[in-house]
Design goal:
Elements (H helix, E strand, L loop, with lengths): L13 H9 L24 E5 L4 H6 L6 H12 L8 E5 L17 H18 L3 E5 L1 H8 L7 H4 L4 E3 L2 E6 L2 H6 L4 H18 L2
Parallel strand pairs: 1-2, 1-3, 3-5
Antiparallel strand pairs: 4-5
The chain binds uracil (URA).
GO biological process, one term: DNA repair
Organism: Collimonas arenae
Family: Belongs to the uracil-DNA glycosylase (UDG) superfamily. Type 4 (UDGa) family.
């Protein structure tokens, strides 16, 4: 008897991966979404920025970081000589918007992260970025496999590794909007990211 099997993201090309995400039903987040948010940028970008997951605006527009935090991220990218949609690829840990019972954004659960992570892993394999930047706690902890008690402050300032590539951890732009005093720390993180990129030599 032929058993229908879902193709593993590991074997997919970019278009197949986009289609698989667009039709994904691997976790309950598929029921509430308006759009999946695959990511934006050149799929040969050398920089990959990874956020948490779509919020309200991203769910409506199908693009990551399009709200106020996204404006700040765009400015951060510009300061690094990078541009959304071009040499910086922007993606999230989960591709569908997590909401609580009252319709507000919430972080994804560990199960939702586990269901979605193979897509991001395949994106990384196909993009082959030189440096990964985790924006905030959810991205950092999900990639590094750490528990929720680990603060971002402990992970900043070191070059971690994920998928055989350097990974820098910094604050999430939405956090930064609330804590402008931590802007200097983000510049320090980004300068670590830029020197890591320069050392990686491509
Ligand atoms: N916050 C995120 O982490 N990702 C988005 O795409 C938007 C807001």
């Amino acid at each position: 008897v032929a058993v229908p099997t879902m193709a593993s993201p590991q074997a997919m090309d970019w278009l197949q991966l986009q289609q698989a995400v667009a039709g994904c039903t691997a976790c309950g987040l598929c029921h509430g979404r308006k759009n999946t948010v695959f990511g934006v940028g050149d799929n040969k970008a050398k920089w990959l920025f990874i956020g948490e997951g779509p919020g309200r605006n991203e769910d409506i527009q199908g693009e990551p970081f399009v709200g106020p935090a996204g404006k700040l991220l765009d400015n951060i990218l510009l300061a690094m000589g990078l541009k959304r949609g071009e040499n910086a690829y922007i993606a999230n840990i989960v591709k569908c918007r997590p909401t609580d019972g009252t319709g507000r954004d919430r972080p994804p659960s560990p199960e939702e992260v586990a269901a979605c992570l193979p897509y991001l892993q395949r994106q990384i394999e196909l993009i082959q970025p030189t440096v990964l930047v985790a924006l905030g706690k959810t991205a950092a902890l999900s990639l590094l496999g750490l528990d929720a008690a680990t603060p971002v402050s402990k992970l900043r300032g070191s070059v971690h590794r994920y998928a055989d590539r350097p990974l820098i951890v910094t604050y999430h732009p939405a956090y930064l909007l609330r804590q402008l005093g931590d802007k200097g720390k983000v510049w320090a993180d980004l300068s670590l990211a830029m020197s890591t990129y320069a050392q990686a030599g491509d």
